[in-house]
Amino acid sequence: METSHLNTEQIIIGLSWDPLVKPQLTDKIFTIFGQNKESFDLDLSCYIYGKDNSFLDYVSGMPGEMIDKSGSIRHSGDDRDGAGPDDDEQIKIDFIGLPEDVQNIIIVVEVASAHAFKDIFTPSARIVDVQASTLFFNENLKDEHNSDTSACVLGRLERTSENGDWTLHPIKSFLNHEYVEDWSEFLTEFLS
């Protein structure tokens, strides 16, 4: 995966997957005991950092977390089952409106249900230019080498000039989210 220069004012980060149509009896039992196995639930989020790698903000599909402080990063809302065509969750970023102190944005996908990526039907993520529909990134998140994992650090968006130029650095690093105590601190290792 190569670095891409984003010559655009707005992008959409899209996450999609297909629903678990016929849950088994064991799936229903797990769900009764507080571990959702009855439906696939993936979450898309991003973490925003300043020039000194300080954590500035967080955007996710949860109520109260769907818009950053500047109003330039917006989440479409939490989708809990993957039903429907196209993207199930989206984050739209307006680069023009971002404050000058925003230097990096790290994109994360987590499996919020009691599953690993190997269980999910067709998990994929894309990054597209809103105006020109140019596809910068389109990746399947089902990886045979990381099939038992439940989170993926998808990529990093970096401000590369004072003119507002941005670069996409694909990362696609898989891990288990239950081992991460503080995402905002953990993700700083991907900032250099």
Structure description:
With 192 residues, this protein is mainly β. It has a single domain (4-190), classed as Sandwich (Lipoxygenase-1), CATH 2.60.60. 6% of the residues lie in helices and 41% in strands. The chain has two helices and eleven strands; from the N terminus they run ββαβββββββββα. The chain has helices at 25-32, 183-186, and strands at 4-6, 10-18, 42-50, 55-59, 73-75, 89-94, 102-111, 121-129, 135-140, 151-159, 166-175. A six-stranded antiparallel sheet has the order 1-11-10-7-3-4.
Strand count, sense and closure of the main sheet? Answer: 6 strands, antiparallel
Strand content: 35-45%
Rg is 17 Å
- Would you report the number of β strands? 11
Give unreliable regions as ranges: none
CA distance, first residue to last residue: 17 Å
Query: What's the helical proportion of residues?
Result: under 10%
Number of helices: 2
Order of helices and strands: EEHEEEEEEEEEH
The CATH architecture can be given as: Sandwich
In the CATH hierarchy, the third-tier topology is known as Lipoxygenase-1
Based on helices, strands and strand pairing, what is the structural class?
Answer: mainly beta
- Output mean pLDDT: 89
How many structurally independent domains? 1
> Looking at this structure, what is the CATH superfamily?
sav2460 like domains
